[in-house]
Amino acid sequence: MRALFDRVWDEARKPADVDHTVAVSAPTDDERQILTLMCRVSKDEAGARTTGVSVRTYRRRIADLPAALGAGNRAQAALIARERGWI
After folding, report:
1. Which of 6, 27, 52, 64 has the most CB atoms around its CB within 10 Å?
2. Can you give the CATH number for the domain in which 38 is found?
3. Residue 54 above 90 pLDDT?
4. How far apart are CA 75 and CA 4, in angstroms?
5. Nearest to 56, CA basis, from 66, 65, 47
6. Are the beta carbons of 63 and 48 closer than 8 angstroms?
7. Whole-angstrom Cα distance, residue 26 to residue 87?
């Protein structure tokens, strides 16, 4: 097990070295608002209230963002958006 870990560790790259080759266009105004709220509000309910949609709709919009940005989760999607200057 240790040998496997050592091999994987030696081949690992820093997050900055990962190639983000997913061709992504700039987000729409709605997507930009959702990305911004993801970073600013602590609860989905507050974000939904701010945008004037149901919590379910807000969560669905958030769920669509990581795939569109080539991210694995919300946090990574927010980081990618921030790196690209979208939020």
Report:
1. 27
2. 1.10.10.10
3. yes
4. 28
5. 47
6. no
7. 11
**CB 66 within 8 Å of CB 76:** yes
Residue 72 domain boundaries: 27-87
Instruction: Summarize pLDDT for 21-40 with one digit per residue, the tens.
Output: 544 577 788 888 888 888 88
Q: Which residue type does 65 have? A: L
35: in domain: yes
Cα 48 from Cα 12, distance rounded (Å): 38
pLDDT for res 49? 92
**Rounded-to-integer distance, Cα 28 and Cα 85, Å:** 14
Q: Counting Cβ atoms within 10 Å, is residue 35 exposed (0-12), middle (13-18) or buried (19+)?
A: buried
How many distinct structural domains can be found in the chain?
Answer: 1
Six-digit token pair at 29? 């105004």
Residue of 75 and 25 predicted with greater confidence: 75
Residue among 39, 24, 30 at smallest CA distance from 75: 39
